[in-house]
Amino acid sequence: MRRRYFLLFIFILACQKDLDITEFSSDFSDYKPELRIEALILPGDSTAIVRIDKSFLITDTELYDCRDNDFGQISLNACNTIEGIWHGQEDTDTIADCGNWNPFLHDIGSDGEMSIDENGDGKYEGWEDIAPDDDGTENNGSPDCGEPNVDNYAEILPGVHNSLCDVYINKISDNLTETCDFHFADTAGHFFDYRYNGGKADPTLEDIEMINYGAYVPNLDCSNNYWGDYDAQYEFNCDCSESGFGIIKSNEPIVLSKPVVFFIVQDSLSIIECSDHSCLQNTTSLLNGTEYDSLYFGRYSAESYINYASISPNVTFEAIQYMYDKQNNEFKYFHGHPAVGTDMFHIVNDVCAMREKVLSDFYDGVGNGEWDEGELFADTTDNNMYDSGEYFIDLGDDSLDVDIYYYEIFTFSESYRDYYYYSQLPLDDPERTNLRDLSGSGNPVMGAFGSLSSEKIFFRIIDCQKYNKSNQSICEDSDITHDVCKWHDNIILPEYGYQDSLCLPANY
Question: Residue 488's domain spans which residues?
């Protein structure tokens, strides 16, 4: 019987067929947009942000118009002024779409992948080969659906946001209620995105783009300490009647989650004896006033960690690492992931003690400004050779590598924890969302109202081998190498024919 089921499964897989989703558009012709609300209090930043977006069909051709029109339809001169790319005909068009679709970089066809012919025989039969698009969209000189920078965030997000709501959040403390009103701002928040540069793995710093989005933010008359009261309760309210969506409110007040506390290994035995947040703060050796001391790790050091703790039942976290872009003097997103403390591995008494492994190396985020063999280029002369002045993609090459980072660890209010971790449930499931539509029958509304409390700790990677030509005193100087380097005698590296003393990570 098992064999029969297996054969049937193979048969089903063999009969798969790609279907155009537009074929089913009539099934959703009566679809009515709904609201999705993400309302967040951010105590670490002394603010809050409320994003209210409208749902839409993926067949919506007004939103997904397959055009590169980030800056609208404008003249050639106006497009050049803002350094955009104009898609009109100079001799015939006075205005045309202006965007950021580069024909030398983004004309890769509707499948979103550049064709690859490793041996250049035109047959695309190799295991790494990718054939050109059958629809002829690759290298056709025009933006097409599915290509990079066509219907990107800058084009789509303004059409998704609902900016016509009256939003306010109440704070209830000592039986007194305060109100903070919000207003809509076009650039209220941001996130990071990897721009397409011909290779999506390990992007350079220039290819990590900050995307702004519109949202509601507190009015200026709301005090900063409004958002940091861990003993208060908060209620969310918004009236979207003007845009046809009614009144939405949180079904019950929320309380803010306490942030994590960073500590060093030497603090561990004392940390796990704590029973409240104040004890964690008073016990750690890293906290000086309201700021944490920076940490240092030897490059290529083994078993390097950042330790942090919270008080149970606050045992769910989001860990995000950022890296420092020296040229632009800003931090950019590196990576992030959720983390959950368990009774078996992390929870001792009332304390949830976690650690985040540090990749103790530099990030290769900057190129050398020159074309090197193997880098992609726009062959405008069609001679299959790079010529000076042709556009090329400058990949990382160990110059100006990133050595400064920080980790930001977030804790969740109960309501936002459910929204984040119950991702297997629909967005409007009552177990996942705590928002209710008061203008109707009190139905759940997609999204959540909650808090994300956070703490940051900065760290730097020290290249101990930089001091190999120095001496032991420099290698182990606390002011220079911050106690993460050690002078090792009689290091034997047979592969290099080396036997001598070296400055290496202390835990080498």
Answer: 464-508
